[in-house]
């Protein structure tokens, strides 16, 4: 089954409802980064090279009478995977330069800011700062450059002072979606 391209959490929720948890996890077997739906002041453009679009953060605010989950449902969900799936390199690069797997268009983000990698033989995902100018932060704590740091579901990652994303493993993202259903 070919993966359908989604952008919003709501799109993935609809896929989960159609596929069920087991097929959903088989189809979307990679971690995700969610834009920070709780901080509508963020103006960062983010995405993969082929799907760059500016987040309309003003429309993320929930109008009176809508679900309290609406900002989360409208948040971008970015697959944490290589752009070139045939690449032997398993590091997923993040930065401001167009050759990164995940492109963050913000001047406070370094051209090659950080990378994600998976611990061989496990489901553990690690984050490594690439000696970025403005730092990489995990839950508010600055990461030391070149040190692999394990990630957990709902960890908040800041690339520089302005770009915040929330990390979810594939099972963690599925569980989050089930809570929203």
Brief account:
The chain is an alpha+beta fold. It has helices at residues 9-19, 21-27, 70-74, 170-180; strands spanning 32-35, 45-47, 53-54, 77-79, 92-95, 102-105, 114-118, 125-129, 136-138, 141-142, 149-150, 155-159, 163-168.
List the helices and strands and how they pair.
Layout: H1 9-19, H2 21-27, E1 32-35, E2 45-47, E3 53-54, H3 70-74, E4 77-79, E5 92-95, E6 102-105, E7 114-118, E8 125-129, E9 136-138, E10 141-142, E11 149-150, E12 155-159, E13 163-168, H4 170-180
Parallel strand pairs: 5-6
Antiparallel strand pairs: 1-4, 1-13, 2-3, 2-6, 5-7, 7-8, 8-11, 9-10, 9-12, 12-13
Account of the 3D structure:
This protein has 181 residues and is α+β, with helices and mostly antiparallel strands. The protein has a domain at 34-67 and 79-169: Tumour Suppressor Smad4 (Sandwich). Helices cover 19% and strands 27% of the residues. It is built from four helices and 13 strands. It has helices spanning 9-19, 21-27, 70-74, 170-180; strands at 32-35, 45-47, 53-54, 77-79, 92-95, 102-105, 114-118, 125-129, 136-138, 141-142, 149-150, 155-159, 163-168. The protein has a seven-stranded mixed β-sheet, with no helix packed on it. A six-stranded antiparallel β-sheet has the order 4-1-13-12-9-10. A hairpin with a 5-residue loop joins β2 and β3 (53-54). The radius of gyration is 16 Å and the shape is globular.
